[in-house]
Amino acid sequence: MDGIEIAIEWEWAALAxxxxxxxxxxxxxxxxxxxxxxRRRWLELLASASPVLPTVxxxxxxxxxxxALNGGAAALAPWxxxxxxxxxxxxxxxxxxxxxxxHRCAHENRAYWAIAHSVHHSSPHFDQTTGLRVSFVxxxxxxxxxxxxxxxxxxxxxxxxxxxxxxAYQQWLHTELIDKLPxxxxxxxxxxxxxxxxAIQPQYLDKNYGAILMIWDRxxxxxxxxxxxVQYGLTEQIESVNPIKVHFAEAAxxxxxxxxxxGVLQALAYLWHKPGWRPGN
Length: 281
Known about the structure:
By secondary structure, the protein is mainly α. It has helices at residues 3-18, 20-35, 39-49, 52-57, 59-76, 85-108, 110-121, 138-141, 147-151, 156-169, 191-197, 215-219, 243-259, 264-272. It is 58% helix and 0% strand.
């Protein structure tokens, strides 16, 4: 089994997982229609889908960057790990583990949060379109977290395929139509666990980072069960369905803080610390 074959197979697996949206989104739209939601709610759906446009426009650039980055890392690998059924599973497990840290850093580093990941969390609602609310900037930051696997010899196509699978798996999680799943909530990422991740209540903040498995959250103390009803969005809501504000609201706040900093060290601290950090706290 070579890298190209497994990449093709992983691509089909990712498409199959992402296809859950084909089922869930029409059900959600029908549910909203029956509830007679107002115009603002429909505009929020469009705002959540709006990042698809820049993602498509920048797709070739992002792809070229990822190929070059992984190709360079593969050239530095001291050996090559054969692609077998066992190493395919190991790759998926390792990518899932590294995704936990990628995702956690996206929440705990304000620069990463503001210019990329906050876009995904900025909707006050939670549905299948939230899964589309992803900044193309992620494509220039996230790939660095998975380079260790390429550097130790995993086929870069296998690593990228594994990443595609864990991202596609998460599409079905963005829904309120599926209630708690007691047999799975404790160890797999489920809609219930992911609702917690998108919540703004204090007890839910910075929880449930895992992609497929919840074992990493349990190991590192970031797991929380869904208990009280979840409220979604940012702790300071953007209060807008304007696609420009959806993309750049948090980045603009960060830029303002950096420009108003008292010196270089304070500016760097704003970039490095968690969102919400202020001098003296």
